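Thread: quick sanity check before group meeting

JM: Hey all, I'm pulling together slides for Thursday and realized we never actually wrote out the predicted structure for the chain we discussed last week. Dropping the sequence here so it's in one place. If anyone has concerns about the input, flag it before I start.
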Amino acid sequence: MKYLFLCILVPSLCLAALSLQATDDKQPPAEKAIKKPAAGRTLPFHGTVKAVDLKAGTITVGQRVFHVGKATTILKDDQPMELSEDLVGQRIGGSYVATEEGRLEARTIRVAKPKGIGHAPRAS
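JM (edit): ok, ran it. Output follows.
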């Protein structure tokens, strides 16, 4: 009887020790990393302009800051325009490219027309 008890007890203690050792090696889960846009890929954006910095050549849309350079095309009513303070509060859309350094460079910016202005509905 003692022999049978020892044959069951010893392997179960070994298995318990192994399972405790395996759980100690686990690292705590890492926090989710903030996903950055893929560098070199053109991506769309849209939103309301919160701020324009003419000296730095940037516009702030939501939480993101876009750099506006010589290669950036800004259109309002399908006509080219310059970067100005008049963009604050305007709804815009366009495309940008993320650089390796994490900088967001605007490629195209289109100022949206105010609601109610646009093409007349088609008659059916």
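AS: nice. The helical segments are 2-24. The mean pLDDT is 79.
JM: adding both to the slides.
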